Amino acid sequence: MPLDTSTYSLARLRLDGRRAHELRRLSAQLHTQAAADGSAYFEQGNTKVICTVAGPSESKRRGGANSSEQNQDATVEVEVNFAGFSGTDRRKRARGDKRTAELAHTISSAFTSTLLLHLYPHSTITLTLHILSQSGSLLATCLNASTLALIDAGIPMLAPLAAVTVATTAAYADNEEEADVLLDVNEQEEVELPFLTIAGTGEGEGVRVLVLESRVQMGRLEGMIAVGLEGVRRVRGVLDGIVREHGERVLEGKVG
Amino acid sequence: MAADTSTAPASLAFPRATFAKLTPGPFLHAHLKQSPPIRPSGRTLIECREPQITTGSLTHSHGSAVVRLGDTTVVCSAQGEILNASDTPSPPDADDGDLLETLGLLVPNVELSTGCSPAHLPGNPPSTLAQSLSWKVRTLLYGSDLVNPKDLQITFTAPKIDEEDDASVPEVKAYWTLYLDIMFISLDGNPFDAAWLAVMAALRTTRLPKASWDADTEAVVCSPALEDYSRLTLQATPVTATFAVFSTANPLKQRSEAESWVLADPDTSEEDVCREAVTVVLDGSNRVLGVEKAGGRAVGKESVRECVELTFGRWKDVNAMLP
Predict the structure, then answer these.
(1) Which of B58, B60, B83, B117 should one mutate to test binding to chain A, selecting the residue with the greatest count of A CBs within 10 A?
(2) What CATH code is assigned to B51-231?
(3) Which residue of A8, A9, A29, B60 has the fewest C-beta atoms within 10 A of its own C-beta?
(4) Whole-model pTM?
(5) What is B29-46+239-321's CATH superfamily?
(6) End-to-end distance of chain B based on CA atoms, in angstroms?
(7) ipTM value of the model?
(8) Strand order of the sheet with strand B238-247?
C-alpha cells in the first residue's frame, strides 16, 4: 500500500516525496519530427509519450449520395502504439487490444469536440501516439501530448485541452477527515487507490473529459473534481509556457 | 552554398529550396561539381555527422540509449527476460560456441513505422527496410561475438551433501534473453549506423540483476539490490560506416564519361538520388567484420579500400564517444 506507511500520516509525503497537491515534473518539446505535420514529446514524471499529427488530409471514405445529409466535418482518428519497453514486462500488445481501442476512442472524442472540424470538411486528422514509458496517468499524458502536437500542426481549436489525474487516499467510509485528494498519480498509486482522469480547458469550470474506472465514495467525488480542475488549470499554464517558449525560439530562428 | 551564378550559365533563377525539390539529382550534382566538392548540408565528402549519445533514459529497461545522428533519432532499449533451461528443447553444452544463436538469446527488432519520415507512416506492417535492418543487426550481433555467453547463463551449484561427494559441476538452469527494441523517432538517412550505435551504447550500459536458482521453489530469483547488478562484458567494439555513391552514369551516355563521388553518412536527400551504397563494419584497428556493397558499378577496388580506411578513422572517433 503506497500510502499505508507510517510516515504518510505524520509527514504527509507520498512515496516519491511529493505532497498531496504537487504535480510531477512536466517537460515537453514541440516539433520533434520534421517529417510530420505536427509533433510533440511530452513527459509527465516517468510517463513519456510522443505524439505525431498528420493532416488534415483527404479522407479515404467516399460519401455516396448520402454524404450531403451526413456530417461533413473532419474526423479525428487516433492510433496508440505501446513500445515493447514501455512497461515493466516487455509485452507486445495485439493490435486489436480492447484497452488500447478504448484509450484511442476517448482521445478521439475529446478532440472531436474541441477542434474546429467544420473548417476541414471531408478530411481526416490522424493522431499517432507512441508510449515510450508508462508510469501512471497515461490518458492524461496522452491528452496533453496530443494538445501540443495539434498546436504544432496549426490545427485551430476552441481551447487547448489540459488533463490531470486525481486520487483519493481513504478507501473506506469512516475516515472522512483523513481523506486527502492526491494530484497526478504515479503507477503505484494507480494500482492501489481509486483515481480519475479529468481534462478541461483550464478556464472556467467546464469538464471536457472525465474517466473514472474504480469505485469511490459518492461524497468524495466533488472534492476530487474540484482539485482536478485546479490541477488542470496549472497544467494548462505549463502547456502555455511550453508553447510560448517554442514560439519564441521559432521566431528567433526565422527573424534572427 | 548554392552554385555560383558567375560560373553557371545564366538561366531561370530558382530559389534554392525549389531547385532541391524539383530536381534533387542535378541539385546534388551542382554541389559536387564545385572544387572542392561540397554537399548541400555543407559537409565535405568524407565528413560524417557527429553522433550525440544519451544513455539510461528509459526507466523500465535494463539498458537504453538515445542516439542523434543529425536529424536521425533512434531509441534502443535492452530488456532482459529469463528463459528456463527446462523450456529449451535440448539444452546445449555450456561451451558451445553457437550457444547464443542456437537458443536465440539476442533478439533485435527495428521499428520504423513510427511516422519517422513520410515514407514510413505509422500503422503499417514492417517494411522491407525495417525487416532487412533487423536482420543486419542480428547478423552483426551474432557474428561479432559481441556478448559473452557466460554473462547470460544462470548457473546453480548443488551443495555437497556428504564428505565423499565430489564438488558438483555448476549446472546451467536458465538463461537471460536480451530483447533489443530499436525504435526510430525521426529518420534523415543512414538508419543502420544510427541503429547499431544505439545498440552498442545500450549494451555497454546494460546492467542485469544478479539471478540465482532457488532449489526449493525451482525457480529463478533475482536480487533487487542495486549493488548486485552487473554489466555485460562485451568482447568486441564493432563500428559501422555507410557510404552512398552518387554517379552521373547514364545508359544513354558513354560509361567513361560518368563521374562518381562517394559520400560518407548520407542523409535522406542524398540517399534518394544514389543508387549505390557501401557499408563497412570494423572492430578495432585491424579486424574487418563485414563489407557490403549494393547496386551500381561506380565503386571499384580502390574505392572500397578508401571506404575501409575512412572507417578506421571513424572507429577511433566512435570508440572514444561510446559510454
Answers:
(1) B60
(2) 3.30.230.70
(3) A9
(4) 0.84
(5) GHMP Kinase, N-terminal domain (3.30.230.70)
(6) 36
(7) 0.76
(8) B260-264, B238-247, B276-283, B287-294
